[in-house]
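In the design runs reported in the main text, the only information available to the sequence generator was the tokenized backbone. The following block is the verbatim input for one such run; it is reproduced so that readers can re-run the procedure and compare outputs position by position.
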């Protein structure tokens, strides 16, 4: 018993930097809450443009998550279960948006989907479709930066799932598509849900790629992060209120994921 207490005791050389790290991460959030003009919260949220930015953020983040689920889950299966050559290279490419500066991501999207881009020029000539500086561009930019979170989460869930259930389904005559739909997906459903929530939260907070590829037009491409940036230049209190709204959404996301990612601390 005494040995366990001795093991659980935190060494002083670790305790001090750990406390400083907690302070470094928490104090900015405390400062945000302390400086929030709570008495003006309702009026600030009712200001023109705020509701549109919030609505556009929620809609675009949800559409980006849906697109990520449609494309990312099959990609995660390829990374986790197939034996195709070049999977390590493919995995590295998938994770590039995680470390790429978002502004660079926006420039890259321009080079592909812009009016003079690789695909954008064809879309413009063949169908008259122009993507940059539209709401569709917001969804594309958010999908680009958020989908890797979903892919990594689902791939991890697939690797952790017991593949013997799929083997049994195959021996009973189920095809690979049927096995995927009726065995694999239910097995990894918690991982897919966690990845979708992470993807949605990342899409909701996206800024750099969005302002580069979609611009900042109220009612069309101005999301909440862009509204915070604009408000900070002319009305700091409004920027604080909008930041608190995004903070509340982030905390709600963590609460949804607490059982999946944070777990319960041992007593």
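Verbatim output:
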């Amino acid at each position: 018993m005494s040995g366990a207490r001795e093991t659980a005791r935190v060494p002083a050389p670790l305790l001090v930097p750990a406390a400083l790290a907690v302070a470094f991460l928490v104090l900015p959030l405390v400062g945000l809450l302390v400086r929030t003009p709570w008495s003006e919260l309702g009026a600030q949220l009712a200001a023109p443009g705020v509701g549109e930015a919030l609505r556009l953020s929620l809609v675009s983040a949800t559409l980006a998550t849906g697109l990520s689920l449609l494309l990312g889950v099959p990609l995660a299966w390829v990374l986790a279960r197939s034996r195709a050559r070049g999977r390590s290279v493919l995995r590295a490419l998938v994770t590039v948006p995680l470390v790429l500066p978002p502004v660079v991501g926006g420039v890259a999207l321009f080079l592909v989907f812009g009016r003079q881009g690789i695909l954008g020029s064809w879309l413009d000539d063949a169908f008259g479709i122009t993507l940059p500086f539209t709401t569709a561009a917001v969804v594309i930019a958010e999908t680009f930066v958020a989908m890797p979170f979903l892919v990594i989460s689902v791939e991890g869930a697939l690797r952790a799932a017991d593949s013997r259930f799929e083997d049994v389904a195959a021996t009973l005559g189920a095809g690979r598509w049927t096995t995927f739909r009726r065995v694999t997906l239910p097995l990894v459903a918690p991982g897919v849900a966690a990845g979708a929530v992470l993807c949605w939260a990342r899409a909701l907070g996206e800024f750099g790629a969005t302002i580069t590829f979609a611009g900042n037009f109220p009612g069309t491409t101005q999301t909440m992060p862009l509204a915070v940036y604009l408000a900070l230049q002319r009305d700091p209190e409004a920027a604080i209120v909008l930041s608190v709204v995004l903070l509340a959404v982030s905390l709600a996301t963590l609460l949804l994921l607490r059982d999946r990612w944070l777990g319960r601390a041992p007593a």
